[in-house]
Amino acid sequence: MSAAEGSGNGSKHARVILQQCLSARLMVQLATDSVDAEYVQIGRGLIVYVCFFKGASETMIDNMVKSVLKARLSKQTDGGRLVSILDLPGDVMIMPQSTLGGKLKGNAMKFNGNIQKEEGFRLYSHFVEKCEKAVASANVETGHNSIVLYGTYGNKTEVFSTESPTNGQYTHYIEF
Amino acid sequence: MSAAEGSGNGSKHARVILQQCLSARLMVQLATDSVDAEYVQIGRGLIVYVCFFKGASETMIDNMVKSVLKARLSKQTDGGRLVSILDLPGDVMIMPQSTLGGKLKGNAMKFNGNIQKEEGFRLYSHFVEKCEKAVASANVETGHNSIVLYGTYGNKTEVFSTESPTNGQYTHYIEF
């Protein structure tokens, strides 16, 4: 096992992709013969893809939540000023995304650096919970009613659709 | 100037995010009082977000195109086998995404490592052209009719919408 494999992704323990969206919709119930598919939806806001590497721990979560929710990435409609998703204010959709941790070897993605599934689920749940608390607390302060939705860890059947502006501040990347 | 700033992003010269999609639509003409907005669209395929750092050069492009088009990331509908986008076969939507190169300092994204705009445009154009050629050549071999669409470098008014499966092989990350 190489050093990089042993410690996840070198000195990095989590990878986050942020995408601005005008709306995003997540299928929570597949269509069957008798019922239509069901969706949950956010309005303008931020989609947060999260992947943890080996070595990630709970002590990182507060910093991750702060970075994601307070980073000034969103353009206010009335001008050029960039504000955080809490200040926009906007909704948040969190998506577990273990595939983000892959490393391309030849033509195949290898996931040796990814955290184990149970541990990843635990950290993902903490991350979601702390984002929910931070947004709820911002809502109390500002009187807004922003929501946090999230994908199910390990669920492979979700369908996800987004409408996104590519206004030069669209997809961002953060490592922790 | 730190070493990291001088050389872009340390030893890395480009960052690519790949997202599987069921369809993706790109606005190419804003709606006005007299005309509706116009869109171009791909079907099932791959969205390729590309960002170049300082130090990136044309010699990397062939390897980038090969990695992106030949990486086995797409699940065939009839089974679990992963195949490349050329073998799926699927369409390709390329999106310039300079924001991907940002580094979070405090609550602001800094883009010191990004390549200069003119040079980035030149490399982006090469990347698009070589992807088009590779897909065209695969089409001749296979008899398929896959398409390559791409966003305009530096265009800030495009609106982008996608429908994506989150089947566990959805968002991938590659550095070059």
Folded structure, characterized:
Two copies of one chain form a homodimer. The first copy, chain A, has helices at residues 3-6, 61-70, 117-142; strands at 14-21, 23-29, 38-42, 45-52, 74-75, 82-83, 91-96, 103-105, 108-110, 148-150, 158-166, 171-175. With 176 residues, chain A is of the alpha+beta class. Chain A has one domain (3-165): D-tyrosyl-trna(Tyr) Deacylase, Chain: A (3-Layer(bba) Sandwich), CATH 3.50.80. A five-stranded mixed β-sheet of chain A has the order 10-7-4-1-12, with helices on one face. A three-stranded antiparallel β-sheet of chain A has the order 3-2-11, with no helix packed on it. A two-stranded antiparallel ribbon of chain A has the order 5-6. In chain A, strand 8 and strand 9 form a beta hairpin. The radius of gyration of chain A is 17 Å and the shape is globular. The model of chain A is unreliable at 1-6 (pLDDT under 50).
CATH top-level class of chain A: Alpha Beta
**The CATH homologous superfamily of chain A:** D-tyrosyl-tRNA(Tyr) deacylase
* Helix percent band of chain A: 10-25%
- The 3D shape of chain A can be described as globular
Work out the number of β strands of chain A: 12
Taking strands numbered 1, 2, ... along the chain, how are they ordered across the largest sheet of chain A?
10-7-4-1-12
DSSP helical segment count of chain A: 3
- Uncertain ranges of chain A: 1-6
Give the overall pLDDT of chain A as a whole number.
87
- Element order, helices and strands of chain A? HEEEEHEEEEEHEEE
CATH architecture of chain A: 3-Layer(bba) Sandwich
Oligomer: homodimer
Q: What is the SS-derived class of chain A?
A: alpha+beta
Distance between the termini of chain A: 23 Å
Q: How many domains, in number, for the residues of chain A?
A: 1
